[in-house]
Amino acid sequence: GGGVILAPSILAADFANLAAAAREAEAAGAGWLHVDAFDGSWTACRNFTVGPPVVAALGRATRLPLDVHLAVAHPGRYIDALIKGGAAGITVHWEIGPETELAVLLGWIRGAGLRAGVALAPDTPLPESLVSLAARGGVDVVLLLAVAPGWGGQAFRPAVLDKVRRLRQAAGPGLHIQVDGGINAVTAAEAVAAGADVLVAGSFLYGHSKGLAAGMDELRAAVA
Ligand code: DX5
Ligand code: ZN
Asked: Does domain 5-223 have CATH number 3.40.50.150?
């Protein structure tokens, strides 16, 4: 678990103090900062969070790579602005469109030098075409949600672990497999044992009774 990247999710931070939340994550050794960019347009993800202007502001507040989870019905509307805002990676949902459109979006993101990701909601079975796309290096990150998209603080759904195992087996070590939702010290260990190398954690870290840094230490110890 030494190469595991911890990505605190600012969805669980104080939205009125995001610069402080980003600096706290940076000081505690986060690898990426996870930004849930939702606009409420996708029926499966009805929360409305932050968009490109807040990503740009975070880019000025921290050196952490900004990992944007774009769970919206029309991601193409925001990709240019997120690139200009300094995002390091953009992940779009498999469920929102035909595979041809997804390929265009991934090419656009990669062409700008960012990590291109595909996310899967917990009820979506792992598509064989995504497995083969990952196996041939056509995507940099696959985000496997372990909770329903939209809100933090939900219980981890262990069915995600089979998807992690199958994907790691097919794609090999080069792919970032990110598990998002319900991560704590117990589920972090399960996700990493299954083959995940990026863990997103919101409420466990920003809601930790001893503070984010203590939560980061617990996650690192759990996956060591
Ligand atoms: C859920 C988001 C997650 C969320 C995870 O829609 O994609 O990134 O912040 O929150 P926790 O870690 O509290 O489950
Ligand atoms: Zn997310």
From this structure: no
